[in-house]
Amino acid sequence: MPDIADRLKNVTVSASVAMTQKARDLAAQGVHVVGLSTGEPDFPTPEHATEAAYAAARAGDTRYPPTDGTPALRAAIQRKFKRDNNLDYDISQILTAGGAKQIIFNAILATINPGDEVVIPTPSWISYADIVKFAGGIPVPVACPQENGFKPYPADLEAAITPKTKWLLLNYPSNPTGSVATRAEMQAIADVMLRYPQVWIMTDDIYEHLIYDDVTFYTLAEVEPRLFDRVLTVNGVSKAYSMTGWRLGFCGGPKDLIKAMSNVNTQNSGGVTTLTQAAAVAVLDGPQDLLKERAAIYRQRRDYVLERLTSVDGLSCHKPQGAFYLFVNIAAFIGKTSAGGRPISNDADFVLALIEEQHVVTVQGAAYGMSPYFRLSYATSMEMLQEGCDRIAAFCAGIH
Ligand code: PMP
Q1: 171 C-beta closer than 6 A to ligand 1
Q2: Origin, by domain of life (predicted)?
């Protein structure tokens, strides 16, 4: 076979995608699987989004879109940034793409030269490091320990910055830990970054509206206006509005960066599906009550799963205040053996044995850069969560 490009050699297949496939394979064999690996809301897309897409299709809005996004959508995004984040972006500072993932990809591709470094507080979303490697850059993880709520110590962030650093990537609420940065913590990060004017900062705010308790969401450009010209604020409709399949992400940022990203966009996609853009205008400008209603349901699920799992001997878990994940510590089980006789020497062994013996699908912490943990998504029904917790408890009780 002819060769595949070298640039793909270090890029891995996402472990959560691999685990979700494993769940599908088992289910196809007739096994009753409890899938807790997917980072996807289980609610339907709001009706008014679907209606808007349908109306756009009927009206013949089916030709090539403007690559950066339709004027109507970019204006709706501009209003969203003002309403939710108190950020004033000019229309020329706003860009859309096929998901927040493609926004991040375009930003990295537009800025990274071979050998440039990207500082990533870790554990972190699987794709950041792979996207950086794809572009020829070097991901530089900064450990965010459980005892600090899975957030970075500012001194550790500062120590990771070198003359080669191009970006700092921030993601609150976080995938995989659900951590949320307070205003003071955000300010402490900002104080460090003010000392390094050569570094861009990307804030991936995709879980902005999935936030619990009395916590308030803050994004960096809002907290520290002096960084406004160096921050790329990334968001999208996938998680907030249960629109993962529609593929729309967007960002606000410095004009020159947006222009460079727009160049990438013209070559790698040609813009987001017109019907998706119409649907996105409808949800961004439409009633926002559903965000709070759904967050209340996620919070109930979080409380339930947290209570069940923290009462299992050997599991410990930081209480997350956002997103829909728990990042569960399994240090007590390393070096032991499952009821089915499988040695558990790391978190991947734990997760595989849990699938094989109890048919519960989660993802190992190693995939997010921190072990020994597993990530569980509670974006599923209470029934599934109850069944999942019962089986995880039984699995842990059998470890010896
Ligand atoms: N950022 C984070 C932290 C995510 O978890 C995800 C989805 N798993 C994305 C971005 C991608 O979102 P989108 O569907 O908009 O591409």
Answers
A1: yes
A2: Bacteria
Does ligand 1 lie within 6 Å of residue 99's CB atom? yes
238 lines ligand 1 (CB under 6 A): yes
CA of 150 to the centre of ligand 1 (A): 19
Asked if the model's pLDDT at residue 272 lies above 90, the reply is: yes
The pLDDT of residue 195 is 98
Q: What is the DSSP letter of 66?
A: P
Q: How far apart are CA 376 and CA 360, in angstroms?
A: 10
Model pLDDT, residue 10 = 78
pLDDT tens digits, one per residue of 281-315: 999 999 999 999 999 999 999 999 999 999 999 99
Q: Which CATH number fits domain 47-285: 3.40.50.2300, 3.40.640.10, 3.40.30.10, 3.30.70.790?
A: 3.40.640.10
39 ligand 1 Cβ < 6 A:
yes
Q: Quote the tokens at residue 247.
A: 């593929």
Residue 125 Cα: closest atom of ligand 1: 3
Judge if the beta carbon of residue 236 lies within 6 A of ligand 1. yes
Token pair listed for 339:
């009821």
DSSP string of 127-177, one letter each residue? HHHHHHHHTT-EEEEEE--GGGTT---HHHHHHH--TTEEEEEE-SSPTTT
Ligand 1 neighbourhood includes 175 CB (under 6 angstroms): yes
Evaluate: CB of 249 within 6 angstroms of ligand 1. yes
pLDDT digits (tens, 9 = 90+) for 198-237: 999 999 999 999 999 989 999 999 999 999 999 999 999 9
Report yes or no on whether pTM surpasses 0.90: yes
**pLDDT score at 258:** 98
How far does the centroid of ligand 1 lie from the alpha carbon of residue 102, in Å?
9
Q: With bands split at pLDDT 50, 70 and 90, how would you rate the model's confidence at 96? A: very high
CA of 151 to the centre of ligand 1 (A): 19
Residue 141, CA distances (Å) to 105, 265, 346 in order = 18, 28, 20
3 CA distance to ligand 1 middle (Å): 30
Average pLDDT, integer, range 166-182: 98
Options 3.30.450.20, 3.90.1150.10, 3.40.50.740, 1.10.760.10; CATH of 6-44+290-397: 3.90.1150.10
The H or E element that residue 390 is part of is helix 382-397
List pLDDT tens digits, range 55-70: 999 999 999 999 999 9
pLDDT > 70 in the chain, percent: 100
